[in-house]
Write a structure and sequence with these properties.
Elements lengths: L7 H8 L2 H12 L2 H5 L6 H8 L3 H13 L3 E4 L2 E4 L1 H6 L9 H15 L1 H7 L12 H22 L10 E5 L5 H9 L4 E6 L4 H10 L6 E5 L11 E7 L7 H13 L1 E11 L10 H13 L8 H10 L2 E6 L9 E7 L1
């Protein structure tokens, strides 16, 4: 494995990188990229539209230009092709909700040392936060999943299955794409009641109301009912401690038909737990934001599946920029 050749410049770059982070967050929070749209705009006009200080907006626009997120020509500021695609609400590829979610957890990360010392979170779980933060979290999950799901679902042959449970599925992104890729498949999204409006809106957007239903519940505290060929569990285990993870997988196994499969999609650590980078950092994110959550290793997840009676456990290659992977197990 190649190692970074550290020097003062690289160390200080990491230390101060949050300046760029906060500039991007401010651009999203003030909706500047959407306001600019497909046409150029002068900074004073942008300030009027977002009801903000003219000098402050001018400085932010120049900083975003220096970051190559905007272009400046003749006193006008323009979106780049990337910012039009990913940072404007007018685009179907908008990433702003996930960026807002990052913004809301930024203060907790600033107090990471406190969580390291106490082993306790310094913020409230995003699933139970206020309406604005909860929307950013749920739709941020949609942003992220939308970039991964279309290609991921093609790597798994579900043509022989008829029913899928998307456990903790949020807005239902994966249920949607599994159904789009498998015309015979019907699905149910199981999540907290507060998630239902987001899921129903997203499912309707894809014209799948007749094939995807929503079940209200708390998979940690409540039983799971029904009978399914596939149980899909995307990024839910990392929010729970090991004991609850084992209980959740056992609950999922109970509603699985013989020959059915459980699919666990997570940021999975190597057994040494010091790689890959994103899952290792993500485990710290769970430290500051949850009571017991963490990233799990290959061996830990495999052991949980086998304890629940699953066989033929296998692990996929990596998906997306954050190197998520899928571990599957089959019910005999």
């Amino acid at each position: 494995m190649s190692k970074i050749e550290w020097n003062p410049g690289k160390i200080m770059e990491i230390s101060g990188f949050y300046w760029k982070t906060c500039a991007l967050h401010a651009g999203i929070k003030t909706d500047l990229f959407t306001v600019i749209g497909n046409k150029g705009i002068k900074s004073e006009d942008a300030a009027d539209k977002i009801k903000a200080n003219k000098d402050g907006v001018y400085r932010l626009l120049n900083a975003l230009t220096a970051m190559d997120l905007l272009e400046k020509k003749g006193g006008f500021f323009f979106n780049t092709e990337a910012s039009k695609r990913f940072l404007s609400k007018d685009s179907d590829s908008y990433l702003g909700y996930m960026i807002l979610h990052h913004h809301y957890i930024l203060k907790a990360w600033a107090d990471l040392d406190s969580s390291v010392k106490t082993g306790k979170p310094v913020k409230k779980n995003s699933s139970f936060a206020d309406k604005e933060q909860r929307e950013a979290f749920i739709m941020g999950m949609y942003n992220t999943a939308s970039g991964v799901a279309p290609s991921l679902v093609k790597e798994f042959d579900l043509s022989g299955y008829n029913s899928l449970l998307d456990l903790g599925g949020g807005p239902g992104t994966y249920a949607i794409h599994f159904c789009l890729n498998n015309p015979k498949l019907k699905a149910a999204v199981y999540d907290l009641p507060t998630t239902k409006p987001f899921a129903e809106k997203t499912i309707a957007k894809f014209g799948l109301k007749d094939r995807i239903s929503f079940i209200k519940g708390d998979f940690v505290k409540e039983d799971i009912t029904g009978e399914y060929d596939v149980v899909w569990m995307s990024h839910i285990l990392h929010g729970e401690g090991e004991e609850d993870c084992r209980k959740i997988i056992k609950k999922a196994a109970k509603v699985l038909k013989p020959g059915g499969i459980i699919m666990i999609h997570e940021f999975i650590l190597k057994n040494s737990k010091d790689a890959p980078l994103f899952p290792a950092l993500f485990s710290l994110n769970m430290l500051v934001g949850t009571d017991n959550g963490k990233a799990y290793s290959e061996d830990e997840l495999e052991d949980m599946l086998k304890e629940a009676g699953l066989k033929d456990v296998s692990l996929s290659f990596c998906f997306g920029v954050n190197e998520s992977r899928v571990m599957t197990g089959k019910k005999g």
